[in-house]
Amino acid sequence: MKNKLKDFLLLFTGSVLVALGTYFFLAPNRIAAGGISGIAIIINSLIPKLPIGGLMMCMEIILFLLGILVIGPFFGGKTIFCSFSISGVILILEEVFPNIKPISDDVLIQLIFGVLICGLGMGIVFNQNASTGGTDIIAKIINKYFNISIGNSLLAADIIITIAATSIFGINIGLYSILGVIINCTLIDKVIKTLNTYKQVAIISSQGEEIKRYIMDILERSATIYYAKGAYNNNESEVITTILTRKQFIQLKEYIGSIDDRAFITINEVNEVVGEGFTFS
């Protein structure tokens, strides 16, 4: 129950970030940086009476069904939660801050901030095996069946929208939209990689039993033991290996330092871990 609550809090946080970046930075400048939000911005510019949030909510229904059919109901359920969270937050923002205007004359700065905020939010959502709806669902399908990164899959799905933005808003806004899509897709891959980076640790210590108990009892991780012989004196040593999050590694490092300042530790970064104790996605 605690893990599920954490997952949905992360999904909601990511969704709110996407809504804020879209409404305050991209939409006022008519920057259609891909996705359903980009399509909604284009339609809203042509028919201002149609609200961006409402347009997004309507267009997402068809793609929801596609995601549920192709990827599965669990993915579909989380995507529905994220998509309606984004649309709902934008609808609320439209009521609280109606007729929002660009916050500065520098479109590039607003593009960068908007895309950074949206890309961070989308990366968090994708890392929870969900999507923000719209073309993100298409990107997830491409990622599943063609083993292309989420960022590159999203780039392929969004390029048509940026071309449409160019034809409607002009070459300058179109080029900003293309730049936004490229930054966004690159950032999403970077966020996912960062969130899935773990520390693979190998430890040789005279306090091996205490360290093993700390890993299992306090950090609640397992460990693998193997034996190695030193080349200098041919002594056989016990090597403890484990994989930890960044926070857990810091805790372990501090603990080892407090009980054995002569311990030998090697650390490698691991970009993805699946299996017992870790999630499959």
UniProtKB/TrEMBL annotation:
CDD domains: YitT_C (cd16380). Gene3D superfamilies: 3.30.70.120. Its main location: membrane. The keyword Transmembrane applies. Keywords: Cell membrane, Membrane, Transmembrane, Transmembrane helix. It holds the Pfam family YitT_membrane. GO terms for cellular component: plasma membrane. Residues 221-275 form the DUF2179 domain. InterPro entries: DUF2179 (IPR019264), N-reg_PII/ATP_PRibTrfase_C (IPR015867), UPF0750_membrane (IPR051461), YitT (IPR003740). The keyword Plastid does not apply. It is a multi-pass membrane protein. It is found in: Cell membrane. The chain crosses the membrane at residues 7-25, 31-47, 80-100, 107-126, 159-183. This is DUF2179 domain-containing protein.
